[in-house]
Amino acid sequence: MQGRTKAELAGISLLGNQAIDYKFGYDPAVLESFANKHPGNDYFVKFNCPEFTSLCPMTGQPDFATIYISYVPDKLLVESKSLKLYLFSFRNHGDFHEDCVNKIMKDLVELLDPKYIEVWGKFTPRGGISIDPYCNYGKEGTKWQAAAEKRLMYHDMYPEIINNR
Predict the structure, then answer these.
(1) Is 78 annotated as a binding residue?
(2) Which pTM does this prediction carry?
(3) Annotation-wise, does 98 bind a ligand?
(4) Which residues are CB-neighbours of 14 under 8 A, at least 6 positions away?
(5) Which of 29, 83, 117, 133 gives 71 a disulfide partner, CB atoms 3.0 to 4.6 angstroms apart?
(6) Taking a C-beta distance cutoff of 8 angstroms, is the pair 108, 118 a contact?
(7) Domain annotation covers residue 38
């Protein structure tokens, strides 16, 4: 089995780098990508990010969530350490839950041009209410556009039993 060449990893600067400058404000520029070795295969890549934090834009109070990102790559994959640093950049960013989830999706669409992507935020309750925004995207003119429309209509038909928040 062959690994990746230096040329394939030329755009990756964060992985293995110990001198990371953590951004304390929203920063999509930290995201990095690398070539998908299997662009002819349709497959999902899923990230579970249980330590997401942002700030309420009205009160400045912290909001906590698990962010689920699932995508079907085309030519590019997101580098996971850059994704971690990107999500960390929301820590002091004031935005509503729905805005955070949509920004994450749009930034990843801009970076990766995936066949399909969905982002789901499962926020812990504040004031007795939890908010779980979901958004998705399917590449226009492909089967993934239709899949995204269908998935959006049926995305929460079988909601989970919530007993841990």
Answers:
(1) yes
(2) 0.85
(3) yes
(4) 20, 30, 32, 79, 81, 82, 85
(5) 117
(6) no
(7) yes
For residue 7, pLDDT over 80 is answered with: no
Q: How many whole angstroms separate alpha carbon 149 and alpha carbon 151?
A: 6
Active site residue 135: no
Number of domains in the chain: 1
Cα gap 131→123, rounded to integer Å:
6
Identify whether 63 is a catalytic site residue: yes
* Residue 80 marked ligand-binding: yes
Condensed to tens digits (0 to 9), the pLDDT of residues 73-120 reads 999 999 999 999 999 999 999 999 999 999 999 999 999 999 999 999
Cβ neighbours of residue 55 closer than 8 Å, sequence gap 6 or more: 61, 62, 63, 91, 92, 93, 94, 95
CB 85 within 8 A of CB 23: yes
Domain that holds residue 91: 29-154
Instruction: Write down the catalytic residue from 49, 56, 95, 132.
Output: 56
Which phi and psi (to 5°) does residue 101 adopt? -65, -45
> 79 a known binding residue?
yes
Could you say which of 27, 42, 49, 63 is catalytic? 63
